[in-house]
UniProtKB/TrEMBL annotation:
Protein name listed in UniProt: Phosphopantetheine adenylyltransferase
Catalyses which reaction(s): (R)-4'-phosphopantetheine + ATP + H(+) = 3'-dephospho-CoA + diphosphate
One cellular component term from this protein's GO annotations in UniProt: cytoplasm
Family membership: Belongs to the bacterial CoaD family.
Source species of the chain: Dorea longicatena
Length: 163
């Protein structure tokens, strides 16, 4: 059985992420979407919220599991007996960073390979940061995220304005 990991912050999950998830799920027997708990960042959503949202928007993909993690990706991969890490690339700037990370991960664990998928052109500009920035100014994010995620973003933005 081939297990792959698609790691990320997913804060929030976008149509670009979902495109990579669907395509990756077709390449492996089991796809683990690893939701990173990065203590160096202040995310809009908690890890638990991001896991719940990802479970909701991927519930129709039978071989996808959503699992939070922290620490080294290669340790997470070993724990799950995953042999490949899947990363999405939007632009050359992504490639430079992702190549460095893939090479570092390969040095740490030569049994875990990184596979790069180029993003569908219609999502090549899209990032979670873009979604949050547009939402912060009240812009229309419906073209960037599923309706369920859009509702969660607006709830969070409304709550943040009150705080």
């Amino acid at each position: 059985m081939l297990t792959g990991i698609y790691p990320g912050s997913f804060d929030p999950v976008t149509y670009g992420h979902l495109d990579i998830i669907r395509r990756s799920a077709g390449m492996v027997d089991e796809l683990i979407v690893g939701v990173l708990n990065n203590k160096a960042k202040t995310p809009l959503f908690s890890v638990e919220e991001r896991v719940k949202m990802l479970k909701e928007v991927t519930k129709d993909i039978a071989n996808v599991k959503i699992i939070p993690f922290e620490g080294l990706l290669v340790d997470f991969a070993h724990k799950l007996d995953a042999k490949i890490v899947i990363r999405g690339l939007r632009a050359i700037t992504d490639f430079e960073y992702e190549l460095q990370m893939a090479q570092t991960n390969h040095k740490l664990a030569s049994d875990v390979e990184t596979v790069f998928l180029t993003t569908n052109l219609q999502y090549s500009y899209l990032s979670s940061t873009t979604v949050k920035e547009v939402a912060a100014f009240g812009g229309d994010i419906s073209q960037f995220v599923p309706e369920y995620i859009e509702q969660k973003v607006w709830e969070k933005m409304k709550h943040r304005r009150r705080v």
